[in-house]
Amino acid sequence: MIDVADLRCRYGDFEAVRGVDFEVRRGELFALLGTNGAGKTTTMETVEGLRAPFGGTVRVLGLDPFRERAALRSRTGIMLQDSGFPADLTAREMVALWGVTSGRRATEDVLERLDLAHRRDVRIKQLSGGERRRLDLALAVLGRPELLFLDEPTTGLDPESRQRTWEVVRGLLAEGTTVVLTTHYLEEAESLAHRLAILHEGLVAVSGALVDVLAAQPARIEFDLPERLDVGALPMLSGDVVHRPTGRVEVRTGELQDDMAELLAWARREGLRLGRIRAHHASLEDVFHSARTGREVVAA
Amino acid sequence: MIAALGVAELKLLLRNRTAAALAVLMPMAAGLYFALAMDGEQTGWTMIVTLQLLFSLGFTVYVTVTTSLTARRQDLYLKRLRTGAASDVVVLTGVLLPVVVLGLGQAVVLLGISVAAGAPMPARPELLVAAMVGGVALSCAAGVCTSGVTGTAELAQITTAPFFFALVVGGLVGSNGALELPVFLVPGAGLGALVGAAWGGPADQVGPAALSLVLWTVAATALAVRFFRWDPRG
Questions:
Q1: Domain ranges of chain A
Q2: Is A215 exposed, middle or buried, given 0-12, 13-18 or 19+ CB atoms closer than 10 A?
Q3: Is A88 in the B-facing interface, judged by CB distances under 8 Å?
Q4: CA nearest to A125 within chain B
Q5: CB contact under 8 A, B8 and A103
Q6: Residues of B in contact with A81 (CB under 8 A)
Q7: What CA–CA distance (Å, rounded) separates B185 from A224?
Q8: Residues of B in contact with A84 (CB under 8 A)
Protein backbone atom coordinates (compact mmCIF):
# COMPACT_ATOMS: atom_id res chain seq x y z
CA MET A 1 0.00 0.00 0.00
CA ILE A 2 2.82 2.38 0.92
CA ASP A 3 6.47 2.31 -0.05
CA VAL A 4 8.86 4.85 1.42
CA ALA A 5 12.50 4.73 0.37
CA ASP A 6 15.28 6.99 1.61
CA LEU A 7 12.82 9.77 2.44
CA ARG A 8 14.40 13.10 3.31
CA CYS A 9 12.53 16.25 4.38
CA ARG A 10 13.87 19.69 5.18
CA TYR A 11 12.72 22.87 6.86
CA GLY A 12 15.19 25.40 5.48
CA ASP A 13 18.62 24.04 6.37
CA PHE A 14 17.31 21.68 9.03
CA GLU A 15 16.90 18.11 7.86
CA ALA A 16 13.99 16.77 9.93
CA VAL A 17 13.86 13.40 8.16
CA ARG A 18 17.23 12.02 7.11
CA GLY A 19 16.65 8.88 5.06
CA VAL A 20 13.64 6.88 6.21
CA ASP A 21 12.53 3.56 4.70
CA PHE A 22 9.42 1.56 5.49
CA GLU A 23 6.54 -0.20 3.83
CA VAL A 24 2.94 -0.67 4.82
CA ARG A 25 1.10 -3.79 3.67
CA ARG A 26 -2.56 -4.13 2.79
CA GLY A 27 -4.87 -4.73 5.72
CA GLU A 28 -2.39 -4.08 8.50
CA LEU A 29 -2.08 -1.37 11.11
CA PHE A 30 1.33 0.21 10.87
CA ALA A 31 2.42 2.38 13.78
CA LEU A 32 4.90 5.18 13.25
CA LEU A 33 6.37 6.04 16.63
CA GLY A 34 8.98 8.44 17.90
CA THR A 35 9.67 11.22 20.37
CA ASN A 36 8.65 14.81 19.72
CA GLY A 37 10.82 16.12 16.92
CA ALA A 38 11.74 12.63 15.69
CA GLY A 39 10.17 13.46 12.32
CA LYS A 40 7.03 11.36 12.46
CA THR A 41 4.51 14.10 11.66
CA THR A 42 6.76 15.39 8.86
CA THR A 43 7.02 11.84 7.50
CA MET A 44 3.27 11.37 7.86
CA GLU A 45 2.48 14.66 6.07
CA THR A 46 4.81 13.77 3.23
CA VAL A 47 3.21 10.36 2.80
CA GLU A 48 -0.21 12.05 2.94
CA GLY A 49 0.90 14.29 0.06
CA LEU A 50 0.76 17.56 1.99
CA ARG A 51 4.43 18.34 1.40
CA ALA A 52 6.92 17.39 -1.26
CA PRO A 53 9.87 15.26 -0.10
CA PHE A 54 13.32 16.81 -0.32
CA GLY A 55 14.75 13.48 -1.43
CA GLY A 56 13.85 9.81 -1.78
CA THR A 57 10.63 8.31 -3.08
CA VAL A 58 7.16 7.84 -1.65
CA ARG A 59 4.50 5.70 -3.35
CA VAL A 60 1.01 5.37 -1.95
CA LEU A 61 -1.29 2.87 -3.69
CA GLY A 62 1.25 3.02 -6.50
CA LEU A 63 0.93 6.80 -6.92
CA ASP A 64 3.03 9.83 -6.02
CA PRO A 65 1.02 11.34 -3.14
CA PHE A 66 2.21 14.92 -3.75
CA ARG A 67 1.76 15.08 -7.52
CA GLU A 68 -1.22 12.76 -7.78
CA ARG A 69 -3.03 13.99 -4.70
CA ALA A 70 -6.42 14.28 -6.38
CA ALA A 71 -6.38 10.67 -7.60
CA LEU A 72 -5.54 9.37 -4.14
CA ARG A 73 -7.98 11.33 -2.05
CA SER A 74 -11.11 9.34 -2.77
CA ARG A 75 -9.27 6.23 -1.51
CA THR A 76 -7.58 7.65 1.59
CA GLY A 77 -8.87 9.14 4.83
CA ILE A 78 -6.67 11.50 6.81
CA MET A 79 -6.98 12.56 10.42
CA LEU A 80 -4.44 15.29 11.07
CA GLN A 81 -2.89 15.99 14.44
CA ASP A 82 -4.98 19.16 14.64
CA SER A 83 -8.55 18.83 13.49
CA GLY A 84 -8.65 22.05 11.47
CA PHE A 85 -12.32 22.78 12.02
CA PRO A 86 -13.84 26.19 11.36
CA ALA A 87 -15.39 27.13 14.72
CA ASP A 88 -18.69 28.43 13.37
CA LEU A 89 -19.94 25.45 11.35
CA THR A 90 -22.09 22.76 12.98
CA ALA A 91 -21.10 19.09 13.08
CA ARG A 92 -23.79 18.28 10.49
CA GLU A 93 -22.62 21.05 8.13
CA MET A 94 -19.03 19.86 8.47
CA VAL A 95 -20.03 16.29 7.57
CA ALA A 96 -22.02 17.57 4.57
CA LEU A 97 -19.08 19.71 3.40
CA TRP A 98 -16.65 16.85 3.88
CA GLY A 99 -18.92 14.48 1.99
CA VAL A 100 -18.31 16.70 -1.05
CA THR A 101 -14.71 17.89 -0.60
CA SER A 102 -13.22 14.57 0.51
CA GLY A 103 -14.39 12.91 -2.66
CA ARG A 104 -15.86 10.12 -0.50
CA ARG A 105 -19.61 10.51 -0.15
CA ALA A 106 -21.14 9.58 3.18
CA THR A 107 -22.81 6.18 2.85
CA GLU A 108 -23.98 5.98 6.45
CA ASP A 109 -24.54 8.23 9.37
CA VAL A 110 -21.02 8.54 10.70
CA LEU A 111 -22.18 10.83 13.48
CA GLU A 112 -24.32 7.97 14.80
CA ARG A 113 -21.37 5.62 14.67
CA LEU A 114 -19.24 7.93 16.81
CA ASP A 115 -22.01 8.82 19.23
CA LEU A 116 -22.33 12.40 18.01
CA ALA A 117 -25.85 12.25 16.59
CA HIS A 118 -27.32 14.25 19.47
CA ARG A 119 -24.73 17.00 18.89
CA ARG A 120 -25.17 17.30 15.13
CA ASP A 121 -26.59 20.84 15.18
CA VAL A 122 -24.13 22.25 17.69
CA ARG A 123 -21.44 24.60 16.42
CA ILE A 124 -18.02 23.03 16.48
CA LYS A 125 -16.66 25.66 18.86
CA GLN A 126 -19.17 24.44 21.45
CA LEU A 127 -18.13 20.79 21.20
CA SER A 128 -15.79 19.37 23.83
CA GLY A 129 -12.24 18.37 22.90
CA GLY A 130 -13.19 14.71 22.86
CA GLU A 131 -16.26 15.34 20.70
CA ARG A 132 -14.18 17.28 18.21
CA ARG A 133 -11.68 14.46 17.97
CA ARG A 134 -14.52 12.02 17.39
CA LEU A 135 -15.97 14.27 14.69
CA ASP A 136 -12.50 14.35 13.16
CA LEU A 137 -12.39 10.55 13.11
CA ALA A 138 -15.92 10.45 11.70
CA LEU A 139 -14.79 12.59 8.75
CA ALA A 140 -11.63 10.55 8.22
CA VAL A 141 -13.57 7.29 7.96
CA LEU A 142 -16.35 8.78 5.83
CA GLY A 143 -17.09 6.57 2.83
CA ARG A 144 -14.79 3.83 4.20
CA PRO A 145 -11.42 4.65 2.65
CA GLU A 146 -9.01 1.86 1.70
CA LEU A 147 -6.20 3.56 3.55
CA LEU A 148 -6.52 5.60 6.72
CA PHE A 149 -3.93 7.92 8.26
CA LEU A 150 -4.40 8.67 11.95
CA ASP A 151 -2.00 11.22 13.42
CA GLU A 152 -2.28 10.99 17.22
CA PRO A 153 -6.00 10.22 17.13
CA THR A 154 -6.42 9.77 20.89
CA THR A 155 -4.26 12.57 22.29
CA GLY A 156 -6.25 14.41 24.95
CA LEU A 157 -9.11 11.89 25.01
CA ASP A 158 -10.53 10.42 28.20
CA PRO A 159 -10.15 6.63 28.62
CA GLU A 160 -13.69 5.95 27.44
CA SER A 161 -13.35 7.98 24.25
CA ARG A 162 -10.00 6.38 23.61
CA GLN A 163 -11.57 2.94 23.96
CA ARG A 164 -14.29 3.94 21.51
CA THR A 165 -11.70 5.14 19.02
CA TRP A 166 -9.86 1.82 19.30
CA GLU A 167 -13.11 -0.05 18.69
CA VAL A 168 -13.75 1.98 15.52
CA VAL A 169 -10.19 1.35 14.31
CA ARG A 170 -10.45 -2.39 15.05
CA GLY A 171 -13.76 -2.46 13.18
CA LEU A 172 -12.16 -0.81 10.15
CA LEU A 173 -9.22 -3.22 10.24
CA ALA A 174 -11.64 -6.14 10.36
CA GLU A 175 -13.31 -4.72 7.24
CA GLY A 176 -9.95 -4.63 5.47
CA THR A 177 -8.92 -0.99 5.84
CA THR A 178 -5.18 -0.38 6.06
CA VAL A 179 -4.23 2.03 8.85
CA VAL A 180 -1.14 4.14 9.48
CA LEU A 181 -1.09 5.41 13.06
CA THR A 182 1.14 7.74 15.03
CA THR A 183 0.69 7.94 18.76
CA HIS A 184 2.41 8.92 21.98
CA TYR A 185 0.61 6.14 23.81
CA LEU A 186 2.78 3.06 23.44
CA GLU A 187 0.16 0.75 24.93
CA GLU A 188 -2.12 1.94 22.11
CA ALA A 189 0.43 0.91 19.49
CA GLU A 190 1.09 -2.34 21.36
CA SER A 191 -2.56 -3.23 21.41
CA LEU A 192 -3.39 -2.23 17.80
CA ALA A 193 -0.28 -2.46 15.61
CA HIS A 194 0.79 -5.37 13.42
CA ARG A 195 4.04 -3.73 12.41
CA LEU A 196 5.82 -0.55 13.40
CA ALA A 197 8.77 1.75 12.95
CA ILE A 198 10.30 3.89 15.68
CA LEU A 199 11.88 7.09 14.44
CA HIS A 200 14.67 8.80 16.29
CA GLU A 201 16.26 12.05 15.12
CA GLY A 202 14.96 11.64 11.59
CA LEU A 203 16.04 8.01 11.14
CA VAL A 204 14.36 4.64 11.64
CA ALA A 205 15.83 3.26 14.86
CA VAL A 206 13.71 0.09 15.04
CA SER A 207 11.25 -1.46 12.62
CA GLY A 208 9.47 -4.74 11.99
CA ALA A 209 6.53 -6.82 13.14
CA LEU A 210 5.40 -6.01 16.66
CA VAL A 211 6.05 -9.56 17.90
CA ASP A 212 9.56 -9.61 16.44
CA VAL A 213 10.42 -6.20 17.78
CA LEU A 214 9.26 -7.19 21.25
CA ALA A 215 11.00 -10.57 21.06
CA ALA A 216 14.31 -8.91 20.22
CA GLN A 217 14.35 -7.22 23.61
CA PRO A 218 15.21 -9.28 26.72
CA ALA A 219 12.41 -10.12 29.13
CA ARG A 220 12.71 -9.24 32.80
CA ILE A 221 12.33 -11.01 36.13
CA GLU A 222 12.34 -8.85 39.25
CA PHE A 223 12.12 -9.71 42.93
CA ASP A 224 13.33 -8.64 46.38
CA LEU A 225 16.24 -10.77 47.57
CA PRO A 226 15.67 -12.08 51.12
CA GLU A 227 17.80 -10.23 53.67
CA ARG A 228 21.28 -11.56 54.48
CA LEU A 229 21.30 -13.52 51.24
CA ASP A 230 24.06 -12.78 48.76
CA VAL A 231 23.27 -12.47 45.08
CA GLY A 232 26.00 -15.07 44.48
CA ALA A 233 23.74 -17.66 46.09
CA LEU A 234 21.30 -17.48 43.16
CA PRO A 235 21.18 -20.49 40.82
CA MET A 236 22.80 -20.35 37.37
CA LEU A 237 20.53 -18.35 35.07
CA SER A 238 20.94 -17.64 31.37
CA GLY A 239 20.15 -13.93 31.80
CA ASP A 240 22.19 -11.08 33.28
CA VAL A 241 21.65 -10.45 36.98
CA VAL A 242 21.70 -6.93 38.41
CA HIS A 243 21.48 -6.37 42.17
CA ARG A 244 20.23 -2.94 43.09
CA PRO A 245 21.16 -1.14 46.34
CA THR A 246 17.47 -1.29 47.26
CA GLY A 247 17.79 -5.08 47.53
CA ARG A 248 15.79 -5.58 44.33
CA VAL A 249 17.23 -8.10 41.89
CA GLU A 250 16.64 -7.81 38.18
CA VAL A 251 17.31 -10.57 35.68
CA ARG A 252 17.33 -9.65 32.02
CA THR A 253 16.91 -12.74 29.96
CA GLY A 254 16.12 -14.10 26.55
CA GLU A 255 14.84 -17.33 28.16
CA LEU A 256 12.14 -16.08 30.46
CA GLN A 257 10.38 -19.40 31.01
CA ASP A 258 13.53 -21.45 31.74
CA ASP A 259 15.06 -18.86 34.05
CA MET A 260 11.79 -18.40 35.89
CA ALA A 261 11.40 -22.16 36.41
CA GLU A 262 15.00 -22.43 37.61
CA LEU A 263 14.59 -19.54 40.02
CA LEU A 264 11.31 -20.81 41.51
CA ALA A 265 12.66 -24.36 41.89
CA TRP A 266 15.72 -22.96 43.68
CA ALA A 267 13.57 -20.84 46.02
CA ARG A 268 11.44 -23.86 46.89
CA ARG A 269 14.48 -26.05 47.58
CA GLU A 270 16.00 -23.40 49.82
CA GLY A 271 12.68 -22.60 51.49
CA LEU A 272 12.91 -18.90 50.48
CA ARG A 273 10.16 -16.39 49.83
CA LEU A 274 11.03 -13.98 46.99
CA GLY A 275 9.30 -10.68 47.64
CA ARG A 276 7.21 -8.79 45.02
CA ILE A 277 8.14 -11.20 42.27
CA ARG A 278 7.36 -10.07 38.77
CA ALA A 279 8.12 -11.49 35.33
CA HIS A 280 7.28 -9.96 31.99
CA HIS A 281 8.21 -9.83 28.38
CA ALA A 282 9.66 -6.61 27.03
CA SER A 283 7.04 -3.94 26.44
CA LEU A 284 7.03 -1.47 23.59
CA GLU A 285 8.07 1.08 26.16
CA ASP A 286 11.33 -0.84 26.74
CA VAL A 287 11.92 -1.00 22.98
CA PHE A 288 11.12 2.69 22.61
CA HIS A 289 13.43 3.65 25.43
CA SER A 290 16.34 1.64 24.05
CA ALA A 291 15.75 3.06 20.57
CA ARG A 292 15.80 6.55 21.98
CA THR A 293 18.90 6.17 24.10
CA GLY A 294 20.64 3.95 21.59
CA ARG A 295 21.61 1.46 24.29
CA GLU A 296 20.13 -1.50 26.05
CA VAL A 297 17.45 -0.82 28.59
CA VAL A 298 18.11 -0.89 32.30
CA ALA A 299 14.85 -0.18 34.01
CA ALA A 300 14.91 1.96 37.11
CA MET B 1 -17.05 21.22 -4.82
CA ILE B 2 -16.50 24.95 -5.31
CA ALA B 3 -20.16 25.61 -4.50
CA ALA B 4 -20.00 23.54 -1.27
CA LEU B 5 -16.84 25.34 -0.18
CA GLY B 6 -18.37 28.70 -1.09
CA VAL B 7 -21.57 28.07 0.87
CA ALA B 8 -19.55 26.99 3.93
CA GLU B 9 -17.39 30.09 3.62
CA LEU B 10 -20.41 32.36 3.32
CA LYS B 11 -21.86 30.85 6.51
CA LEU B 12 -18.56 31.35 8.31
CA LEU B 13 -18.36 34.94 7.13
CA LEU B 14 -21.90 35.84 8.17
CA ARG B 15 -21.66 34.02 11.53
CA ASN B 16 -18.59 35.98 12.56
CA ARG B 17 -19.99 39.37 13.59
CA THR B 18 -16.79 41.37 13.23
CA ALA B 19 -16.01 39.95 9.80
CA ALA B 20 -19.61 40.35 8.64
CA ALA B 21 -19.77 43.96 9.83
CA LEU B 22 -16.52 44.79 8.10
CA ALA B 23 -17.47 43.03 4.88
CA VAL B 24 -21.13 43.99 4.60
CA LEU B 25 -22.25 46.85 6.83
CA MET B 26 -19.17 49.07 6.65
CA PRO B 27 -18.92 49.41 2.85
CA MET B 28 -22.70 49.67 2.49
CA ALA B 29 -22.91 52.41 5.11
CA ALA B 30 -19.97 54.26 3.59
CA GLY B 31 -21.39 53.85 0.09
CA LEU B 32 -24.78 55.17 1.17
CA TYR B 33 -23.12 58.12 2.82
CA PHE B 34 -21.15 58.94 -0.34
CA ALA B 35 -24.31 58.76 -2.48
CA LEU B 36 -26.71 60.57 -0.21
CA ALA B 37 -24.71 62.98 1.96
CA MET B 38 -22.07 64.18 -0.49
CA ASP B 39 -23.57 66.53 -3.05
CA GLY B 40 -23.14 64.67 -6.33
CA GLU B 41 -23.69 67.71 -8.49
CA GLN B 42 -20.98 69.64 -6.70
CA THR B 43 -18.50 66.87 -5.80
CA GLY B 44 -18.91 65.12 -9.11
CA TRP B 45 -20.64 61.75 -9.47
CA THR B 46 -17.51 60.13 -10.88
CA MET B 47 -15.72 60.61 -7.62
CA ILE B 48 -18.65 59.27 -5.58
CA VAL B 49 -19.09 56.18 -7.75
CA THR B 50 -15.33 55.58 -7.64
CA LEU B 51 -15.30 55.84 -3.86
CA GLN B 52 -18.18 53.38 -3.60
CA LEU B 53 -16.41 50.90 -5.85
CA LEU B 54 -13.12 51.33 -3.99
CA PHE B 55 -14.77 50.65 -0.63
CA SER B 56 -16.53 47.56 -1.94
CA LEU B 57 -13.28 46.27 -3.40
CA GLY B 58 -11.07 47.43 -0.54
CA PHE B 59 -13.16 46.35 2.45
CA THR B 60 -15.43 43.65 1.14
CA VAL B 61 -12.96 41.95 -1.14
CA TYR B 62 -9.38 42.81 -0.18
CA VAL B 63 -9.62 43.07 3.63
CA THR B 64 -12.09 40.18 3.92
CA VAL B 65 -10.01 37.88 1.69
CA THR B 66 -6.93 38.65 3.79
CA THR B 67 -8.72 38.19 7.12
CA SER B 68 -10.66 35.06 6.10
CA LEU B 69 -7.68 33.24 4.62
CA THR B 70 -5.55 34.11 7.64
CA ALA B 71 -8.26 32.95 10.06
CA ARG B 72 -8.85 29.71 8.12
CA ARG B 73 -5.13 29.03 8.06
CA GLN B 74 -4.89 29.69 11.81
CA ASP B 75 -7.75 27.24 12.39
CA LEU B 76 -5.82 24.76 10.20
CA TYR B 77 -8.97 24.58 8.09
CA LEU B 78 -6.97 25.23 4.91
CA LYS B 79 -4.65 22.37 5.79
CA ARG B 80 -7.65 20.13 6.36
CA LEU B 81 -9.14 21.09 3.00
CA ARG B 82 -5.91 19.98 1.35
CA THR B 83 -6.45 16.50 2.80
CA GLY B 84 -9.61 16.36 0.70
CA ALA B 85 -10.00 15.82 -3.01
CA ALA B 86 -10.17 19.52 -3.93
CA SER B 87 -7.08 20.91 -5.66
CA ASP B 88 -5.39 24.01 -4.26
CA VAL B 89 -6.99 26.19 -6.93
CA VAL B 90 -10.45 24.79 -6.19
CA VAL B 91 -9.99 25.35 -2.44
CA LEU B 92 -8.93 28.97 -2.98
CA THR B 93 -11.68 29.61 -5.51
CA GLY B 94 -14.29 28.18 -3.13
CA VAL B 95 -13.10 30.29 -0.22
CA LEU B 96 -12.88 33.47 -2.33
CA LEU B 97 -16.15 32.98 -4.20
CA PRO B 98 -18.65 34.36 -1.64
CA VAL B 99 -16.44 37.37 -1.01
CA VAL B 100 -16.26 38.13 -4.72
CA VAL B 101 -20.03 37.76 -5.16
CA LEU B 102 -20.64 39.91 -2.10
CA GLY B 103 -18.23 42.62 -3.31
CA LEU B 104 -19.65 42.75 -6.83
CA GLY B 105 -23.23 42.65 -5.55
CA GLN B 106 -22.53 45.52 -3.22
CA ALA B 107 -20.92 47.58 -5.95
CA VAL B 108 -23.95 47.09 -8.20
CA VAL B 109 -26.44 47.95 -5.42
CA LEU B 110 -24.49 51.08 -4.47
CA LEU B 111 -24.27 52.14 -8.09
CA GLY B 112 -28.05 51.73 -8.32
CA ILE B 113 -28.48 53.92 -5.27
CA SER B 114 -26.25 56.61 -6.78
CA VAL B 115 -28.21 56.52 -10.04
CA ALA B 116 -31.43 56.80 -8.06
CA ALA B 117 -29.94 59.77 -6.22
CA GLY B 118 -29.26 61.52 -9.48
CA ALA B 119 -26.01 60.15 -10.92
CA PRO B 120 -25.99 59.81 -14.73
CA MET B 121 -25.65 56.36 -16.30
CA PRO B 122 -22.09 55.64 -17.49
CA ALA B 123 -21.42 56.70 -21.07
CA ARG B 124 -19.18 53.66 -21.64
CA PRO B 125 -20.49 50.93 -19.31
CA GLU B 126 -18.00 48.38 -20.69
CA LEU B 127 -15.19 50.38 -19.03
CA LEU B 128 -17.03 50.22 -15.69
CA VAL B 129 -17.42 46.46 -16.06
CA ALA B 130 -13.69 46.20 -16.88
CA ALA B 131 -12.84 48.25 -13.79
CA MET B 132 -15.04 46.04 -11.60
CA VAL B 133 -13.70 42.75 -12.94
CA GLY B 134 -10.07 43.92 -12.91
CA GLY B 135 -10.52 45.46 -9.49
CA VAL B 136 -11.91 42.22 -8.07
CA ALA B 137 -9.02 40.23 -9.56
CA LEU B 138 -6.47 42.69 -8.16
CA SER B 139 -8.11 42.75 -4.73
CA CYS B 140 -8.28 38.96 -4.53
CA ALA B 141 -4.66 38.47 -5.58
CA ALA B 142 -3.48 41.19 -3.19
CA GLY B 143 -5.57 39.65 -0.38
CA VAL B 144 -4.10 36.17 -0.93
CA CYS B 145 -0.64 37.71 -0.94
CA THR B 146 -1.21 39.83 2.18
CA SER B 147 -2.61 36.87 4.10
CA GLY B 148 0.68 35.10 3.39
CA VAL B 149 2.54 37.70 5.45
CA THR B 150 -0.19 38.03 8.10
CA GLY B 151 0.24 35.81 11.15
CA THR B 152 -3.15 36.22 12.80
CA ALA B 153 -6.57 37.50 11.76
CA GLU B 154 -6.18 40.42 14.22
CA LEU B 155 -2.93 41.47 12.57
CA ALA B 156 -4.78 41.76 9.25
CA GLN B 157 -6.10 45.14 10.44
CA ILE B 158 -2.52 46.42 10.25
CA THR B 159 -1.14 44.48 7.30
CA THR B 160 -4.02 45.44 5.01
CA ALA B 161 -3.67 49.16 5.67
CA PRO B 162 -0.90 50.05 3.16
CA PHE B 163 -2.48 48.42 0.13
CA PHE B 164 -5.97 49.55 1.12
CA PHE B 165 -4.93 53.21 1.29
CA ALA B 166 -2.85 52.94 -1.87
CA LEU B 167 -5.93 51.51 -3.60
CA VAL B 168 -8.26 54.26 -2.37
CA VAL B 169 -5.88 57.18 -2.91
CA GLY B 170 -4.72 55.80 -6.26
CA GLY B 171 -8.32 55.27 -7.31
CA LEU B 172 -9.41 58.79 -6.38
CA VAL B 173 -6.46 60.41 -8.13
CA GLY B 174 -6.98 58.10 -11.10
CA SER B 175 -10.63 59.04 -11.53
CA ASN B 176 -9.76 62.69 -11.59
CA GLY B 177 -8.95 63.36 -15.24
CA ALA B 178 -5.65 63.87 -17.07
CA LEU B 179 -2.84 61.86 -15.53
CA GLU B 180 0.94 61.72 -15.78
CA LEU B 181 2.42 58.27 -16.35
CA PRO B 182 3.92 57.82 -12.81
CA VAL B 183 0.43 57.99 -11.31
CA PHE B 184 -0.30 54.63 -12.92
CA LEU B 185 2.40 53.10 -10.73
CA VAL B 186 -0.01 53.37 -7.78
CA PRO B 187 -2.44 50.45 -7.50
CA GLY B 188 -5.97 51.64 -7.98
CA ALA B 189 -5.02 54.49 -10.31
CA GLY B 190 -5.77 52.40 -13.38
CA LEU B 191 -9.05 51.33 -11.87
CA GLY B 192 -10.00 54.93 -11.05
CA ALA B 193 -9.07 56.12 -14.53
CA LEU B 194 -11.28 53.41 -16.08
CA VAL B 195 -14.24 54.50 -13.92
CA GLY B 196 -13.51 58.13 -14.87
CA ALA B 197 -13.43 57.23 -18.57
CA ALA B 198 -16.71 55.31 -18.20
CA TRP B 199 -18.33 58.59 -17.16
CA GLY B 200 -16.84 60.61 -19.97
CA GLY B 201 -13.29 61.14 -18.71
CA PRO B 202 -10.34 61.31 -21.17
CA ALA B 203 -10.45 58.27 -23.46
CA ASP B 204 -6.73 58.37 -24.23
CA GLN B 205 -6.06 57.15 -20.70
CA VAL B 206 -7.97 53.91 -21.12
CA GLY B 207 -4.95 52.08 -22.55
CA PRO B 208 -2.44 52.97 -19.82
CA ALA B 209 -5.15 52.51 -17.17
CA ALA B 210 -6.01 49.00 -18.32
CA LEU B 211 -2.32 48.15 -18.62
CA SER B 212 -1.69 49.41 -15.09
CA LEU B 213 -4.55 47.33 -13.69
CA VAL B 214 -3.41 44.20 -15.53
CA LEU B 215 0.24 44.64 -14.47
CA TRP B 216 -0.70 45.22 -10.84
CA THR B 217 -2.89 42.12 -10.91
CA VAL B 218 -0.11 40.03 -12.46
CA ALA B 219 2.40 41.34 -9.91
CA ALA B 220 0.02 40.67 -6.99
CA THR B 221 -0.65 37.16 -8.31
CA ALA B 222 3.06 36.43 -8.60
CA LEU B 223 3.63 37.70 -5.05
CA ALA B 224 0.65 35.66 -3.83
CA VAL B 225 2.15 32.49 -5.30
CA ARG B 226 5.44 33.35 -3.62
CA PHE B 227 4.11 34.33 -0.17
CA PHE B 228 0.88 32.41 0.39
CA ARG B 229 1.06 29.65 2.99
CA TRP B 230 -1.41 26.83 3.67
CA ASP B 231 -0.02 25.84 7.03
CA PRO B 232 0.98 28.12 9.92
CA ARG B 233 4.05 25.92 10.40
CA GLY B 234 5.31 27.08 7.01
A1: 2-214, 218-281
A2: middle
A3: yes
A4: B75
A5: no
A6: none
A7: 85
A8: 75-81
Contact B80 A84 (CB under 8 A): yes
At position A170, the amino acid (one-letter code) is R
Q: Are B201 and B44 in contact (CB under 8 A)?
A: no
A195 vs B: CB within 8 A: no
Sequence-ordered list of residues with C-beta below 8 angstroms from that of A300, at least 6 positions apart, any chain: none
Beta-sheet pairing, A55-60 with A2-11: antiparallel
At CB < 8 A and 24+ separation, what contacts does A113-119 make? A113/A138, A113/A141, A113/A168, A114/A138, A114/A164, A114/A168, A115/A164, A116/A91, A119/A91
Contact B77 A50 (CB under 8 A): no
Nearest CA in chain A to B233: A11
- The dihedral formed by the CA atoms of B99, B103, B108 and B110, expressed in degrees to the nearest 10: 130
Residue B83: its chain A contacts at CB < 8 A?
A: 48, 50, 73, 78, 80, 102
B32-36: long-range contacts (C-beta < 8 A, 24 or more apart)? B32/B110, B32/B113, B34/B110, B34/B114, B35/B110, B35/B113, B35/B114, B35/B117, B35/B119, B36/B113, B36/B117
pLDDT at A108: 56
Q: Kindly identify which residue of chain B lies nearest to residue A46, measuring between CA atoms.
A: B83
Question: Would you list which residues of chain B are within 8 Å, Cβ to Cβ, of chain A?
Answer: 1, 4-5, 8, 11-12, 15-16, 72, 75-87, 231, 234
CB pairs under 8 A between A and B: 68
Class for domain A2-214, per CATH? Answer: alpha beta
pLDDT in tens, chain B (234 residues): 999 999 999 999 999 888 888 888 999 999 999 988 888 788 889 999 999 999 999 999 999 999 999 999 999 999 999 999 889 999 999 999 999 999 999 999 999 999 999 999 999 999 999 999 999 999 999 999 999 999 999 999 999 999 999 999 999 999 887 677 788 889 999 999 999 999 988 888 899 999 999 999 999 999 999 999 999 875
Cα distance between residue A141 and residue A48, in whole Å: 15
C-alpha torsion sign, points A70, A72, A76, A81? negative
Domain extents in chain B: 2-227
Nearest Cα neighbor of A155 from A188, A190, A196 is A188
Contact A88 B77 (CB under 8 A): no
